[in-house]
Amino acid sequence: NLNNTPISMHKRNVHYGDLWNLKYLKKFQWAHLTEKVAYERRVREQKLRVEMMQARKENAAYQELVETGKTLDKIEERKRKRGETFVSTFRERKTKQKKPMQEGTDKSTKKALLGSLM
Fold this sequence. Notes:
By secondary structure, this protein is mainly α. Helix content is 54%, strand content 0%.
């Protein structure tokens, strides 16, 4: 039993004063540990693979938007040179914005707004 026994008895040894810290694990096999490590490695690689696929999709979508923008710019430039008006088929989303609160508003509306947020 090596648990809690000194590593070295010689004072000149680097490990003098250090103790072994081992515990016997009943029915433990080395294969159990290697299986767990291999499983964790596979899980980590799978997560990394999924993240890389997601990044590739985002990059491809961004490049597609950039190419679309470039082609629309070229079309607009050609139309402008000809003297025609360019109507873009690209639609922007319209968003509704709330009006900002004024400094002089009463406290009840501010409390109601804060209450709705929480």
